[in-house]
């Protein structure tokens, strides 16, 4: 695989990856300069009517460029929502439905999600439920959404009682990842995206983890070829997992490494206070420490996890105001739990995650009590 | 087929029909005394947690009986919504989600829809989108929902700008049709249900249409064997169509005979003023008259359609306050339209419906101007 990676890096051409899901299969195109080039967007549109869903941070930067990538005879409308995780609500999705109906859009239309994971999740959910399902295309503009939420068909919104509690599985017709959009991404959000990239190495690919340890500096300096490579490798790992298990009955749960703890942090702090990737970063270190307590990881493994998170600019502590019980209260509601049993994703080794539903309460309590707080 | 119908009618045992949809296949059980008998509900429940969704008309009559059909170790909750089409909104579905989350329901739970089509559509949509999809079971208590909305997996809610505009395709695990529930159904609602029964004969089965002409009086007198037969035959016809075309790309559109005109009536009069089946009844006569104008039906055919609607106790006129333009305004938004082209379901003969997207404007205008008003 190392040879393959290097050969890709020589050319500037976009890479294409196919997510294999039978009749719901779709391509992911990754490269520089995709926005504004009709070769990448036009082939995937259904019908004449196009609704671009974006937010007020992304719209001034990229909305016009996306429109340039559409042919002149399209009926193009847009919904510009406020930026931020706090907007990921049913009310925001209702605004999208209102706009579609006000414009008289029928079921042969396409929604284009232009923005980060929040926009992608909401536009995807809006598409899933508008007239019982219309086409949509993901144009993710943050590293996190490029490597995570744009692959796999999970869409939805938060509820005051829990993250992503309302939603649907709905696959896009295509995902267009323009690495140029990362040039305007705040450094903190780049780090948050790197947390998910590191996650793929930790759960499934020790070789990729080593590659990331070697190239973290270039990634943070926005080296185009390295970014394209890391995104391609991440999407390929996620696509393989999703193709095995589209509706999360089995192996797909591994993608939630760090997420059970991370969701608890996000929910307790209020959505948006911690970036999702930051919470997942701390959560992955918690999962690694718990795996160490169970005798699966050795000291050096945990040090490597901690070091790569630090190199990516991620937090390695939990919030100072969060008790053991604060964690447990949110974790009880986690979607992975079956009946009333807590299920966690842990590491048998670096590059080898597993689903674990028999964690001794004493070990979990000890972790939640002793894990460093910021 | 006549022989098959007669042989069924001899026994009192429930009839079972399988809707063939691959891994989403499910049975429909039809008979007397199904509610309260654990043999019919228990086998289809997923997980321990059960949420019964019903309304304040049905709950006093049947909620306790359904609970008697559940084993003692289940965690059973209920949501009782107000009765009526005006409650078929996203806000009502949100109440179901709130109740599920407040009770800590995880994704291994089952929603039971106990009521008419409004309850079935909302509970189904709530199930489709709760934690991206949980199990649900339909227990329809009106004739309309027994022969129509409980088969096919359409779920959703209305929007101020259009009926069923927000929703999803989501299949139940089973449908339990207890014909005893029709004994408490108002006569007007029984007639509305008969409109959909007649529809199946008109679109696909001239033999069934003749059977209905012969037995309409017994059906309106709630003869149990005749009801079971009519429901079974209707569900079988719908199931065959749905199995051919689950997501309504082709033949399933035929099930919308009378619905384009009918939806226009409902939307213009305000949802609930006309019952859905009443609007469909008038809409079918409009479709028959338009088919006559196109030279497909002869005078006698139209008279037969009018006569069976009258025998079923259905209206055969459009609302007195509704102009041609009132019809056209709503019809323009119909989900069947592709791009901006109006599509109608018409009759080439009694028992043979077709999709038609080239109706001359003059013929449509003439129908909408001359069709009798009430």
UniProtKB/TrEMBL annotation, chains A, B:
Required cofactor names: Co(2+); Zn(2+); NAD(+)
Domain 3-dehydroquinate synthase N-terminal: 79-191
Subcellular location, principal: cytoplasm
Pathway assignment: Metabolic intermediate biosynthesis; chorismate biosynthesis; chorismate from D-erythrose 4-phosphate and phosphoenolpyruvate: step 2/7
Annotated compartments: Cytoplasm
Lyase in keyword set: yes
Keywords recorded for this protein, A-Z: Amino-acid biosynthesis, Aromatic amino acid biosynthesis, Cobalt, Cytoplasm, Lyase, Metal-binding, NAD, Nucleotide-binding, Zinc
Binding-site list for Zn(2+): 196, 259, 276
Entry-linked InterPro entries: Dehydroquinate_synthase, DHQ_synth_AroB, DHQ_synth_fam, DHQS/DOIS_N, DHQS_C
Catalysed reaction, written as an equation: 7-phospho-2-dehydro-3-deoxy-D-arabino-heptonate = 3-dehydroquinate + phosphate
Domain of life (superkingdom): Bacteria
Gene3D superfamilies: 3.40.50.1970, Dehydroquinate synthase-like - alpha domain
All residue ranges annotated as the 3-dehydroquinate synthase C-terminal domain in the record: 193-337
CDD domains: DHQS
Positions contributing to NAD(+) binding: 83-88, 117-121, 141-142, 154, 163, 181-184
HAMAP family tied to this protein: DHQ_synthase
Family: Belongs to the sugar phosphate cyclases superfamily. Dehydroquinate synthase family.
Name of the protein: 3-dehydroquinate synthase
Protein species of origin: Litchfieldella qijiaojingensis
Top-level taxonomy: Bacteria, Pseudomonadati, Pseudomonadota, Gammaproteobacteria, Oceanospirillales
